[in-house]
Design brief:
CATH architecture: Roll
Helix content: 10-25%
CATH class: Mainly Beta
Largest sheet: 7 strands, antiparallel
Number of helices: 1
Number of strands: 9
CATH topology: Pnp Oxidase, Chain A
Number of domains: 1
Radius of gyration: 18 Å
Strand content: 35-45%
């Protein structure tokens, strides 16, 4: 039986230009861990004769990862940023997310780090940090 829990999910990030082994991402924010917003899959247009046409639209997919300010995985992203800024060249990543509660495994392919926080917002406590990776492909494993 599947459940709604994400507490037992596992996110591993591969970035061969920075790390020799995949990195386990951990220390998610209280209300958020990771999410993929909707992306454009197709486009529908209506002709002047009231006939609809449609087309597949290739698009990138964005993944937001939200980490507590004290997450050890902030260092993973900071190291990637450091390499990108030093080389002035992007690095590509792959990732796997395992979600046992839903019985799902997701493969993320050819991603680049596209948005990063400079530092955690300082309020009563240090606020979570959101990182964004834009992927070429996100697919269930085995497809």
């Amino acid at each position: 039986m599947t459940t709604l829990t994400t507490a037992n999910s596992a996110f591993t990030l591969e970035c061969p230009d920075v790390f020799s082994i995949p990195q386990l991402i951990q220390g998610y924010a209280t209300e958020d861990a990771f999410s993929v917003p909707q992306y454009e899959l197709g486009r529908a247009v209506m002709g002047v004769d009231a006939k609809m046409s449609g087309a597949f639209v290739p698009s990138t997919k964005e993944l937001d990862i939200v980490l507590q300010a004290d997450s050890p995985s902030n260092r993973v992203f900071q190291q990637i940023v450091g390499v990108i800024e030093a080389q002035q060249e992007t690095v590509f990543m792959n990732a796997t997310i395992v979600m046992p509660g839903q019985g799902e495994v997701w493969q993320f392919t050819r991603g680049i780090l596209t948005k990063v926080p400079a530092l955690a917002a300082a309020k009563k406590t240090a606020e979570p940090r959101t990182y964004q990776i834009t992927w070429e492909s996100i697919k269930p494993a085995g497809i």
